[in-house]
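Suppose you are handed a protein chain with no further information: no name, no annotation, nothing but its sequence. What can you learn? This example shows the usual starting point.
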Amino acid sequence: RKITSSTDVDKYARAKAEPEWSALGRRLGKSMGQVAKGIKDLDPAAIRAFQETGEITVAGNVLKEGDLKIVREFQVPEGFNPDDIDADGDGEVLVMMDLTVDEEILLAKTAREVVNRIQKLRKSAGLEPSDKVEFYYAI
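A reasonable first move is to predict its three-dimensional structure. Written in structure tokens, the prediction is:
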């Protein structure tokens, strides 16, 4: 088991722009639909440029910070099976888990099961936690 951190956002997430309806709706009026579509169609390079400059022109309208929000969606990194990985985040932080079952995980699972069953047997026998027990196993 290990924890790996990374700041390589593009490897694990895809940036997506969404309009801030409350900020833009009043200001743009009838052209809001066209601008909203333009915001949703922004490519990663345009989103990156917006993040660097704080300004972008969409459908002839200059938009600034607060007019749109950038959200990040998880994308399965290259070389990973989508069934063996899961992720969740809040747009700022993304946590990924490798769900691949390997020998170490199987051994840990078996150890937990053995301990659990011994504890249940101790309880059903009315033993105290300080009582010593012996157990034997065979594989």
